[in-house]
Design a protein that fits this description.
single chain, mainly beta, four-stranded antiparallel β-sheet, 2 helices, 28 strands, kinase
Length: 377
C-alpha cells in the first residue's frame, strides 16, 4: 500500500499507511521523525528521497529505505516555502522567503543553479514542475507567475497576476497531462491552459479554497476552509459537495482511486473515488496540526508491521518444532546478561589447575627466601 507522509506545525514528519485488520481498514502510523526544530511548510518525494522544508531555514532529506537523515541543505536564508522534485528525480527545486530559487542535483546534492531574485526579491511561495521536466512555474510575493526553462536553466516569461484579477495566489498545480494548471486565490480557483497561455475558466467558491487535487485532465477536487470537499469538471460548472472535515481542509492528495485529505486540526481521512463520488474508508488523528502532505508510492519503501514479522517467526518456529519431533533435544536457555555487565567469564574444570598454579609458585618463593636465613642462623 501507499504511504501517506505529513508535515506538522510542531516540526514532525509522520507516515501513515492503510492496513487491514479483522476486515477493517485503518490508517496506521509507519514512522515518525522530528528532523525540524520549527514548523514544516512543505514536503516532496522522488524515488527513495523525502525532502521537507520548514521555518528553520533548512531542507532535510530523508532516505526512506533506512528511515534516517541523508543530508541537510542549508542553502537558504529564510523560511522554505516550496520543495519540488523533477519527475525524473534528478533535481530538487526549493523556494524561500529570501526570494531565491535554488536547483540542486540529487546525486551529489550540489547546487547547479541559483536565481537569487526570482520574484524581484519577494518571497517565493509555490513551485510546480511540468510533467515533461522541461519547465517549472513559480508564484511569489510580487504577484507574478514566472516560467522557468529547466533545459537551458533560465527564466522564460513573466505574467502579472494583478492584471488578471488575481490577488495573493497561494497554490499552483499541474494536471496529470500537463496542459492545464490551477491557481488558488482568495475566493476563486482559476484553471489555466499552457497552449492558450491564459485563464480558461474561473470558479468562484462560497468559502476560501485551500487545496486542489487533479484526478485527471478534466476533473478536480477542491478543499475549502469550511471543511467541505467539492468535486467538479472543468467543462461543466456543476459541483458535488461532501462534508469532509469539521475544520479547514489543509491539503489533498489523490492516487490509485484513493483521495487523502487532512484538516488543520490533525484529522486525516481516506476516501475511495468511484464514479466521481467519494466514500469514506477510514479516519485517524495525528494529534498535531497538519501543514502539508505527500505520498510515497513505492511499496518496497514502506515499512512492514512488526506484528506481521512476529507472526512469520512464530510460524517458522512451529514448523521447525513439528519437523523435529522425532529427535527432541533439550537445550539450555541462554544465560541472561547481568545488569551492568557486557561479558560474563566462567571457568571450567580445565582451568582449575591454572588457578592453583600461581599460589604454588608463591609458596616456593617464600621457601627460597627462608633458606638463607636458616644458614646464617
Amino acid at each position: 500500500m501507499d504511504e501517506l507522509v505529513i508535515g506538522t506545525y510542531e516540526g514532525f514528519l509522520l507516515g501513515y499507511s492503510l492496513r487491514s485488520e479483522d476486515n477493517v481498514t485503518r490508517l496506521k502510523q509507519t514512522f515518525a521523525t522530528h528532523s525540524h526544530t520549527a514548523s514544516v511548510r512543505c514536503v516532496a518525494i522522488a524515488g527513495k528521497f523525502l525532502a521537507s522544508g520548514g521555518t528553520d531555514d533548512k531542507v532535510v532529506v530523508i532516505d526512506l529505505k533506512t528511515r534516517k537523515e541523508h543530508t541537510v541543505l542549508m542553502n537558504h536564508d529564510g523560511t522554505i516555502n516550496a520543495v519540488a522534485f523533477t519527475n525524473g528525480g534528478t533535481h530538487l527545486l526549493t523556494g524561500s522567503d529570501d526570494g531565491s530559487i535554488i536547483v540542486t542535483r540529487t546525486g551529489n546534492w550540489q547546487i547547479e543553479k541559483v536565481w537569487k531574485k526570482a520574484h524581484g526579491g519577494e518571497p517565493v511561495t509555490a513551485i510546480a514542475v511540468h510533467p515533461s521536466d522541461k519547465l517549472a512555474l513559480s508564484i511569489g510575493g510580487d504577484k507574478t507567475l514566472r516560467t522557468w526553462n529547466l533545459v537551458k536553466g533560465r527564466p522564460a516569461f513573466t505574467i502579472n497576476l494583478s492584471s488578471k484579477g488575481l490577488t495573493l495566489p497561494t497554490e499552483i498545480k499541474f494536471s496529470p497531462g500537463g496542459d492545464r494548471f490551477s491557481l488558488l486565490s482568495l475566493q476563486t480557483l482559476d484553471v489555466w491552459t499552457i497552449s492558450k497561455a491564459g485563464i480558461e475558466k474561473r470558479i468562484s467558491c462560497n468559502s476560501k479554497p485551500t487545496s486542489v487535487q487533479w484526478i485527471n485532465d478534466e476533473r478536480i477536487f477542491v478543499g475549502l476552509e469550511k471543511g467541505n470537499i467539492i468535486t467538479l469538471n472543468v467543462a461543466d460548472s456543476k459541483a458535488l459537495t461532501y462534508q469532509g472535515h469539521k475544520q479547514r481542509v489543509k491539503c489533498l492528495y489523490y492516487e490509485n482511486n484513493i483521495l487523502y485529505s487532512a484538516s488543520s486540526s490533525g484529522e486525516m481521512k481516506a476516501w475511495t473515488v468511484k464514479d466521481e463520488k467519494l466514500q469514506e474508508i477510514c479516519t485517524n488523528n495525528a494529534s498535531c496540526r497538519v501543514t502539508c502532505i505527500t505520498l510515497n508510492k513505492q511499496n518496497h519503501l514502506v515499512k512492514k508491521e512488526e506484528s506481521d514479522h512476529e507472526n512469520e517467526t512464530e510460524e517458522a518456529v512451529k514448523n521447525a518444532s513439528d519437523s523435529d519431533n522425532s529427535e527432541c533435544v533439550e537445550e539450555k536457555p541462554p544465560m541472561k546478561r547481568k545488569p551492568g555487565a557486557f561479558v560474563t567469564i566462567s571457568y571450567g574444570d580445565d582451568n582449575q589447575n591454572e588457578d592453583i598454579a600461581p599460589s604454588a609458585k608463591k609458596s616456593k618463593k617464600r621457601k627460597r627466601n627462608k633458606k638463607p636465613k636458616n644458614k646464617t642462623g
